[in-house]
């Protein structure tokens, strides 16, 4: 039924250990105009073939390779051509503004049209001014200590020194270094944007393609330039955790703040566009692992945002058309989805050095290990706002949405009809590997059939407080609304050291999909595959990996936690499907009772034969790891 995957050392790992560089280094064809004539140079670059896959690790290896012979480039900065007429621009704008109003009246437009256009223009200017003020504040913080800036604006002189941003906790020395090196990292940022970001965006556009519509070809998206500007990013603070962490890892939270004058110039269908006045704030978690007893001591890292970052930006050039209401919201929604699905917990970015010692550790087990399961019970609401108002009074049909990072549980199908004091008794469970720093967000909505549901308030709970006490029950007042509160109960269930057996009543199944081989659609074109995973029959919505391909041997390297309330009867059900057509490429079922008989309830990098494949396809397989935890 299954067979273990053979262990082979890759040639890349051997060359990395011996200090050798790969003979082939990929570079951007647009940047490589005059390649060196000396073919013996190990850093000589050649144009990337169309058939070669996009491999971020190879590009990163090339970008951060120190050249033997440094190149000297002189970059001149031209003066601003508008500086001559800068003093006359306000007068010209006023003349243009009044001429436009006169023309509208002359052409017979009513005052209503003029008022609407004026309001639209005012909204646009207000948004620009708001972003500009944030940029100006960030610029001041780079010249004057932020303590003085906030003292002048908020009057913090009466507070003790430890409350007014102590430098020890806020790592001001890192910001000083950032300010010094910021002008020097512009060129490498351009290369990273061109070599890593642009292919990734085109890959996402390719995934979004529907049937014969290729969004990548239609958009023809290209990054033309990245200008970091003079205002550097800042680190608000760093917290390193020494409790509830593994022995072979370092866990830290980094608050990243940016409100600068960076500009990104790109083109869509040959039209020049620009993103500017970017404002960004987020708490990023950096996990350095594994720690090794050989150089370079660190084998890799994982990175993700604890919660959804807050960010804003303005568009320039032809992209100004996207500021139209509706289009702007759609673009921001797509950007939110990209960030949330790619980098917000439990999603993450992982990077490991291609060393033999790291590879051996990964083969021993790449499964994330949960520390426990957080159980949340939303019992009832009290004095909620009435959103559905009518002549005889008002009502609401409330329900709750819970989320931690990108993991979201909605009870929209269990809304309470016409009640502002509802009794819900909603229950949700979240397996968590690093509870420190995470926040449970609770939002209440009014269900409206056929229209968008109305927002009724929100609140949040620090998960670390529940972990420390073990239990929690409290009435929480809803924010961003007139009135209302909810009764929430929480419990932290620690992972048990005892193994899962047939007598166990519940468990966590950790599943890690490595890759698939020999997939086929029955046609000449390879599939665009993804894996859909469910555990048990009660789970309505399972987990789906990101689509990979087109390839017959896609590599996923994605994992997820699943909860089982009947381990003796449940199974891990995996279906491999074509993302574009929905066709089934194969499936496999693994009973949890089989895993209970394995040592430590665990198997690693095991190859399973797929069933239900296309006619004549008998060698399609999926390689995965899995482990059971009792709580």
How does this model look, in words?
Strand 13 and strand 14 form a beta hairpin. Helices cover 24% and strands 33% of the residues. The strands form seven sheets. Strands 4, 5, 6, 7, 8, 9, 10 and 11 form an eight-stranded antiparallel sheet that branches. The protein has 631 residues and is an alpha+beta fold.
For this structure, the quaternary state is single chain
The overall strand count is 29
Give the proportion of residues in helices. Answer: 10-25%
Low confidence ranges:
1-51, 68-85, 156-168
- Structural class category: alpha+beta
Sheet of most strands: 8 strands, antiparallel
**Mean pLDDT over the full residue set:** 76
Please compute the radius of gyration using only Cα atoms.
28 Å
Task: Please provide a brief summary of the model.
By secondary structure, the chain is of the alpha+beta class.
Give me the secondary-structure topology.
Layout: E1 2-4, H1 11-17, E2 26-27, E3 46-47, H2 56-63, H3 89-106, H4 111-143, H5 146-154, H6 167-170, H7 172-181, H8 186-207, H9 215-219, E4 222-227, E5 234-241, E6 250-259, E7 263-268, E8 271-288, E9 300-305, E10 310-317, H10 327-343, E11 349-352, H11 356-364, E12 372-382, E13 388-390, E14 393-395, E15 398-404, E16 407-410, E17 423-432, E18 439-446, E19 454-462, H12 463-469, E20 471-477, E21 485-494, E22 507-517, E23 529-535, E24 543-544, E25 555-564, E26 571-578, E27 584-591, H13 592-596, E28 602-609, E29 621-629
Parallel strand pairs: 2-3
Antiparallel strand pairs: 1-28, 4-7, 5-6, 6-8, 7-8, 8-9, 8-10, 9-11, 12-17, 12-21, 13-14, 15-16, 15-18, 18-19, 20-21, 22-25, 22-29, 23-24, 23-26, 26-27, 28-29
């Amino acid at each position: 039924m299954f067979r273990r995957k053979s262990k082979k050392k890759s040639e890349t790992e051997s060359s990395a250990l011996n200090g050798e560089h790969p003979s082939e280094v990929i570079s951007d064809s647009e940047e490589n105009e005059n390649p060196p004539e000396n073919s013996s140079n190990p850093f000589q670059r050649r144009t990337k073939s169309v058939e070669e896959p996009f491999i971020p690790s190879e590009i990163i290896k090339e970008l951060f390779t120190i050249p033997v012979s440094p190149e000297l480039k002189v970059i001149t900065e031209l003066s601003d051509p508008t500086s001559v007429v800068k003093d006359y621009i306000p007068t010209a704008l006023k003349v243009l503004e009044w001429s436009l109003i006169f023309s509208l009246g002359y052409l017979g437009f009513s005052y209503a049209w003029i008022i609407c256009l004026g309001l639209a223009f005012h909204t646009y200017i207000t948004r620009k001014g708001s972003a500009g003020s944030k940029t100006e504040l960030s610029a001041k913080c780079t010249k004057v200590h932020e303590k003085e800036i906030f003292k002048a604006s908020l009057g913090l002189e009466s507070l003790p020194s430890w409350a007014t941003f102590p430098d020890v906790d806020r790592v001001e020395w890192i910001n000083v270094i950032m300010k010094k090196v910021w002008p020097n990292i512009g060129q490498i940022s351009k290369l990273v944007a061109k070599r890593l970001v642009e292919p990734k965006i085109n890959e996402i556009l390719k995934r979004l393609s529907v049937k014969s519509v290729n969004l990548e070809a239609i958009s023809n998206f290209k990054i033309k330039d990245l200008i970091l500007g003079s205002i550097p990013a800042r680190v608000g603070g760093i917290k390193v955790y020494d409790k509830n962490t593994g022995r072979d890892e370092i866990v830290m939270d980094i608050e990243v703040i940016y409100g600068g004058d960076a500009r990104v110039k790109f083109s869509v269908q040959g039209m020049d566009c620009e993103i500017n006045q970017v404002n960004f704030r987020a708490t990023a978690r950096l996990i350095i692992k594994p720690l090794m007893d050989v150089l370079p001591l660190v084998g890799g890292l994982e990175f993700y945002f604890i919660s959804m970052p807050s960010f804003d930006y303005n568009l320039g050039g032809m992209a100004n058309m996207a500021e139209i209401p509706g289009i702007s919201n759609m673009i921001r929604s797509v950007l939110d989805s990209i960030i949330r699905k790619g980098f917000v917990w439990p999603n993450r970015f992982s990077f490991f050095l291609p060393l033999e010692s790291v590879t051996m550790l990964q083969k021993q087990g790449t499964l994330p290990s949960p520390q426990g399961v957080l159980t949340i019970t939303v019992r009832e609401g009290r004095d909620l706002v009435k959103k559905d108002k009518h002549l005889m009074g008002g009502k609401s049909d409330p329900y709750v949405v819970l989320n931690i990072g990108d993991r979201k549980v909605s009870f929209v199908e269990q809304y309470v009809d016409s009640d502002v004091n509802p009794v819900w008794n909603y229950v949700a469970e979240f397996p968590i590997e690093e509870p420190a720093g995470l926040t449970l967000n609770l939002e209440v909505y009014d269900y409206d059939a056929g229209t968008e549901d109305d927002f009724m308030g929100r609140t949040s709970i620090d998960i670390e407080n529940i972990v420390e006490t073990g239990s929690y029950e409290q009435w929480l007042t809803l924010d961003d609304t007139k009135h209302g509160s909810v009764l929430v109960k929480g419990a932290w269930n620690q992972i048990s050291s005892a193994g899962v057996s047939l007598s166990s009543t519940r468990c966590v199944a950790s599943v890690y999909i490595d890759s698939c081989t020999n997939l086929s659609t029955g046609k000449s074109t390879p599939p665009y595959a993804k894996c859909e995973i469910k555990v048990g029959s009660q789970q309505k919505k399972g987990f789906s990996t990101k689509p990979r391909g087109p390839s017959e041997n896609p590599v996923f390297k994605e994992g997820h936690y699943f909860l089982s309330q009947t381990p003796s009867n449940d199974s891990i059900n995996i279906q491999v499907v074509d993302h574009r057509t929905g066709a089934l490429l194969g499936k496999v079922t693994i009973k949890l009772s089989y895993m209970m008989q394995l040592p430590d309830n665990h198997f690693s990098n095991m190859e399973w034969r797929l069933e239900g494949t296309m006619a004549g396809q008998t060698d399609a397989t999926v390689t995965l790891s899995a482990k059971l935890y009792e709580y």
